[in-house]
Specification:
- The protein is of the alpha+beta class.
- The protein is built from seven helices and ten strands.
- The chain is 29% helix and 22% strand.
- The strands form three sheets. The chain has a five-stranded mixed sheet.
- It binds benzoic acid.
- The site of benzoic acid has 9 residues, from helix 1.
Amino acid sequence: MEENQVVSMPRIGDKAPEFKAVTTQGDINFPADFKGSWVILFSHPADFTPVCTSEFMTFANMENQFAEANCKLVGLSVDGLYSHIAWLRTIKEKIEYKGMKNVEVKFPLIEDITMTVAKRYGMIQPGESSTKAVRAVFFIDPNGVIRTIIYYPLSLGRNFDELYRVLIALQTADAFSVATPADWRPGDDVIVPPAGSCGTAKDRMEGKEDMKCYDWFFCTKELKKETVLKTVLKK
Ligand code: BEZ
């Protein structure tokens, strides 16, 4: 790709671009095969590199936690299938890192040697690298709509607690028609009504003692952790 070439990158609110791909778990038709589930589609720069290895071990270790939130994981790099298989086998058989060992990566890892998918998803960012994908993270909802996009450079390993927090916050916003404030975690107050709606604080406060207004445009209410977990995680 030429450095100044204009590429169309998917945006929040767009339908996730469709593609068929070969993965370590067989062929996939994306996003159709994942309809009804949330999906995190993420890219890494290269197999057999240290930051990516630390990330894959962490993600694989958290796979059940994401599954409990109805979320499947799909990885991608511009390496080939045999490289992926050899790298994942090395991780399982040889790498012990931060108390994690025998880590089996069970989620699909896409081979994309032609960079077709990586380019379509804006994962090749030539200012950073024209031969490797950056660390992109796409949160895609059960209807195949992109809901959050996060990009990290090659040198920066992702924060997986944050990825999980984003997933739960998106699901909470959908389930309760609320927004979530800075650093929100389940159990913290949520913002009502969602950003962009109107009405005065007084209107909104009437008969709603559980609301707290900081000003006319900024009201919150309690949303118990148990309620969030019961709804989002079915716990
Ligand atoms: C890594 O995962 O360690 C890595 C990959 C590509 C460039 C720099 C670091």
